[in-house]
Amino acid sequence: MKIHQTLFFMFIASSTLSCMMSPKTITGPDGTPHLLISCNEIKDCYSDAQKQCDGTYKIINTSNEVIGTDGRTFSTTNLLIKCD
User: Fold this and answer.
1) How far apart are the C-alpha atoms of 47 and 58, rounded to whole Å?
2) Tens digits of per-residue pLDDT, 14-62?
3) How far apart are CA 43 and CA 21, in angstroms?
4) What is the reported pLDDT for 7?
């Protein structure tokens, strides 16, 4: 049972990390292009947003996800932004 849980969390962690490699372009609430950036720490999201937008951007929304069991947790921060 423990090995299955460990493998599951390794899969989740690798999936989360692969999602964090590049921002996703999505249609925002106003119908214009927005970027969805995922990271482990908010400071990394801010840094990536600044790079993606060549400087200035507006934060449209943020969310946090925490997945865990057996004392292990994985946290992801999502930042929806719009470049100025």
Assistant:
1) 13
2) 444 444 457 999 998 889 999 999 998 889 999 999 999 998 999 999 9
3) 15
4) 43
Q: Which residues of 30-46 are buried (b: 16+ CB within 10 A; e: fewer)?
A: eeeebbbbbbeeeeebb
Rounded to two decimals, the pTM is 0.68
Sign of CA dihedral 40, 7, 3, 5: positive
Identify the residue whose tokens are 């925490």: 66
CB proximity list for 74: less than 8 A, separation 6 or greater: 9, 12, 13, 16, 66, 67, 68
Q: Which residue stretches of 1-84 are H helix?
A: 2-20, 42-52
